Amino acid sequence: MSGGSVRPRHGGERGKADMHLHTLYSDGTASVRQLLDWVELRTDLDLVGITDHERIDGALRAAEIHAAGDYSFELVVGEEITTRRGHLLALFLNERIAALRPLEETVERIHEQGGLAIAAHPMAMLIPSIGERSLRALHHDPNPARHLDAVELVNPSTAGRVKAAARRRLNEELLGLPAVGNSDAHVLEGVGTGWTWFPGSSADDYRQAIADHTTQPDGAFWSHAHNVAVYRRQLHATLRHLGHTLRPTGEWR
Q: Which residues contact 59 (CB under 8 A, 6 or more apart)?
């Protein structure tokens, strides 16, 4: 979903996307408007995805603000879903997908909406992440509707640093999935510290790059001090978020 006047930041030949961002609607520390304005004024991103935990209402609100504004980047509605096997990014959604369901079922539900299913920080040890055994099982599943569309190989957080070499090796030797990079930002300063290069600049171009295996992950790991600062600021946001995983609608009561 994008506004009416989109101007490619990189001339339209190569786009830069960060498709793993969090807001106050889950455990992020910025409002959707603050996030959109930060992307516009402080980054050179062509495309972003709002992927709050277990809900898409923040992303839908961001899409409304974005459509009414004059932003020079495009926006995709997404969700970071907690499956029984770990976190899964879902992009290009219209409806929320319930948490704590089997991984295979969750991938299928994403595809039923025409969305993309991407393994977020796979094999990480510090937060719920899809492990190697589950990645291998999905790869060998005879049902293509249960196959992942891409794998997040660059995630600059501590969670992303752990097992970075192992997940890259697994993808090269077995999975063969398109590789993406994202910031997984929960604070404004983190936005755009991990990203994906892709041919073109639009959301449609990004989807095509995933299909064509022409994405290129990039970024730099955060310092230990930055990680500590981020986690400290997330604590109060996490307390707000705890109830959402089990609520069937994801709405505040």
A: 25, 32, 49, 50, 51, 52, 77, 78, 79, 93
Amino acid 189 reads: E
67-118: per-residue pLDDT in tens?
999 999 999 999 999 999 999 999 999 999 999 999 999 999 999 999 999 9
> Tell me: the pLDDT tens digits for 20-52?
999 999 989 899 999 999 999 999 999 999 999
Identify the burial level of 165 via C-beta atoms within 10 angstroms of its C-beta, where 0-12 means exposed, 13-18 middle and 19 or more buried: exposed
Tokens 């790059």 correspond to what residue? 209
The domain spans of the chain are 14-238
> Is residue 207 classed as helix, strand or coil in its secondary structure?
helix
Going by CATH, does the domain composed of 14-238 fall within 3.20.20.140?
A: yes
Q: Half-sphere exposure of 9 toward its Cβ, with a 13 Å CA cutoff? A: 20
